[in-house]
Amino acid sequence: MRDLTFDAETPTTAHETAVACLRDAVEAVLPDRVVRDSVSLDGDDLSISGSTYDLASFDRLLVVGGGKAGDGVADALEAVLGGRIDAGVVVTPDPGTGARIDRLPGAHPVPSREGVESARRIVDLLADADERTLVLAVVTGGASAVIPTPAEGIALEDLQSTTDALLRSGAHIGELNAVRKHLSTLKGGGLARLAAPATVAGLVLSDVVGNDLGVIASGPTAPDGTTYDDALSVLDRYDLDVPASVRERLERGARGELSETPKPGDPAFDRVRNHVLADGHTALSAARETAEAAGYEPILLSSRVRGEAREAAKTHVAVAEEAAATGDPVDAPAVILTGGECTVTVRGDGEGGPNLEYCLSAARELGTDAVVAAVDSDGEDGGTDVAGAVVDAETAAGVEAGREAAAALAGNDALPFLRDRGALVRTGPTGTNVNDLRVAVVDGRDGRRDSEDPSGE
């Protein structure tokens, strides 16, 4: 099991509580724990979230897939199934080693040539799958980029530039994946179609609001509800300048000159069942237990918050302020939890990500004695090497700091501002991904430890 460290400054009890809630939330969705709780073997009976697969009915058991949690899921499956696994390939940003399942490299958030080569190994492994094959498909956040299989006529460079443009546009994940599914062969149900007529069990760790199976990792084992027309609409909606090959392919598809991705009712899904093993709500439920054990009144507002990060932060702050002022919707001392996937429309050229921008916006808004923290559960917010931040009303207090904070927010440059104020949370890659996790702690019980005891003890 991966060691998980949350490195953050915690000068008050409220800071400590915020970080503890986030740490325990991430630990609850680490692949080792998730698979151990959901997958078991009793003789020939393989149980996955209450569904049973009789291994005596199959000649081969294959494991394929990947994403940010792919390596951990592969480790856990080897621990459960051992020699029952005949072969496997998982693609991850930081591959380890395994006894039965090959671990291969891929990049995130922009696909790489290594990822293309790794994805070919998955295609080759599934080429001989038949009705006596059981495929365990590891579907975790990040796989859209980590496992790239550019469609005919699409060069990797074209896929890379299109992905980068989409990420910078502020498009939400469903829009982004509508495009990617129509530029790739394994996404949008492509893996299920390639594996047919094998039996496929999807092992899903969801990083998508609402657990839409067609969106998680671009839905390799799920029907695609989007079309070439939808993908073109995304490019037009955000006025994206993409390579000619990309627009030409989408336009050809919209004219009916190319086959669509498999839709609901397609025979490719006749023997496919997807199992969501963990999601953002799983993580936030663990955080709620941590808060309660620490003597706080917890409330989980929603695991499905989306929209611009800087705007969503204002709502979280407003709820914390209301709790402090009136006791609604919860009496202090309280912990207010949210999660989901916020986006950033990039207008500047600074360093940051959705959670860093969320925290910077919250710091500018806080008008009460509360602490707000937010992290990406994968440990890497946006394109940075930090998970997120923890802030309070002092983070951007004062005229000069307020001006600097405003400039940083305008330039999408949250990381340097928060780093200079000791507000960053560092974890390194966590090996899981269930989206963003956020906490506001309203603590009326004590102040800064260093105001009472300079040693902080």
From TrEMBL:
Residues 251-260, 443-457 have a biased composition (Basic and acidic residues). It holds the Pfam family MOFRL. GO terms for molecular function: glycerate kinase activity. Residues 19-251 form the MOFRL-associated domain. SUPFAM superfamilies: GckA/TtuD-like. The keyword Transferase applies. Gene3D superfamilies: Glycerate kinase, MOFRL-like N-terminal domain (3.40.50.10180), MOFRL domain (3.40.1480.10). Residues 251-271, 437-457 are annotated as: Disordered. The keyword Kinase applies. Keywords: Kinase, Transferase. Residues 335-436 form the MOFRL domain. One of its GO terms (cellular component) is cytoplasm. This is Glycerate 2-kinase. It comes from Halogeometricum pallidum JCM 14848. The lineage of its organism: Archaea, Methanobacteriati, Methanobacteriota, Stenosarchaea group, Halobacteria.
